[in-house]
Design brief:
single chain; about 240 residues; alpha/beta; Rossmann fold; four-stranded parallel beta sheet
Length: about 240
């Protein structure tokens, strides 16, 4: 079994979910006494969020690279960034640390292709929705088309994700916003919706929708567990 290096803390709630899912999956695949070989570095998200909003992505990538080097020293065989947005600096981090990095967009794309879908909606921070690093990767490597909400709705989602509200308050206060935004994407031809922020699966319930919602946290965790158990490490 290979050791997973989790770059977390963005936010700690989603990092906790990664740790729980990965260990649960490994236990199911092996036996009741097995758990993941895993090391975690949980970063303070406040300075990273500040750098994001200042457009200082190289500096944010340097912070993740520094933490990734710590994980390498602790024995990590590959890296998992526990957030969608910070995959904007995935190549920078992987190169600086010298370890393979399991990309969240690849894990998500594999699930979309398995369902035979070609066009999906993408929800996430404004960086994930508006910048090219996520959508371009889906198109270049998998020929998956993505559509995003209009500018007003992108601002609403971004504000929700960075509001600091507890999850129960978000569900109560913004459930109708999410429904309206998702229905708008479906009306424009989306065959499914990527929950492209690791917080979103904690806010939006598949039971409330008839189309597939792609939980990037779960999909990424499943891919990490599978790679940990694989004979050879192979990433795109």
């Amino acid at each position: 079994m290979k050791t997973i290096g989790l770059l977390g803390g963005m936010s700690w709630e989603s990092t906790l979910e990664y740790y729980r899912l990965i260990n649960q999956i490994i236990k199911e695949k092996r036996s009741q006494f097995h758990s993941a070989r895993c090391v975690v570095y949980s970063l303070d998200f406040h300075p990273i969020a500040k750098l994001q909003h200042e457009g200082k992505w190289k500096e944010a990538g340097d912070l993740l690279s520094w933490a990734g080097q710590k994980l390498k020293i602790m024995g990590a065989d590959f890296l998992v960034i526990c957030t969608n947005t910070m995959h904007k600096v995935a190549d920078q981090v992987s190169k600086a640390v010298g370890l393979p990095l399991l990309h969240i967009a690849d894990a998500t794309a594999e699930a979309i292709k398995l369902m035979g879908l070609e066009k999906v909606g993408l929800l996430g921070t404004k960086f994930t929705m508006e910048d090219e690093f996520y959508r371009e990767r889906l198109w270049r490597n998998y020929r998956i088309k993505t559509i995003i909400p209009n500018g007003r709705d992108r601002k609403i989602i971004h504000r929700i994700l960075y509001s600091g509200e507890c999850l129960s308050m978000i569900r109560a206060n913004h459930g109708e916003d999410f429904k309206r935004i998702i229905n708008g994407l479906l009306s424009r031809g989306a065959q499914g919706i990527i929950l492209g922020c690791t917080e979103l699966p904690l806010m939006i319930d598949q039971a409330n929708y008839d189309v597939p919602l792609f939980d990037t946290t779960r999909l990424h965790a499943e891919a990490a567990a599978a790679l940990s158990l694989a004979e050879e490490i192979s990433t795109r």
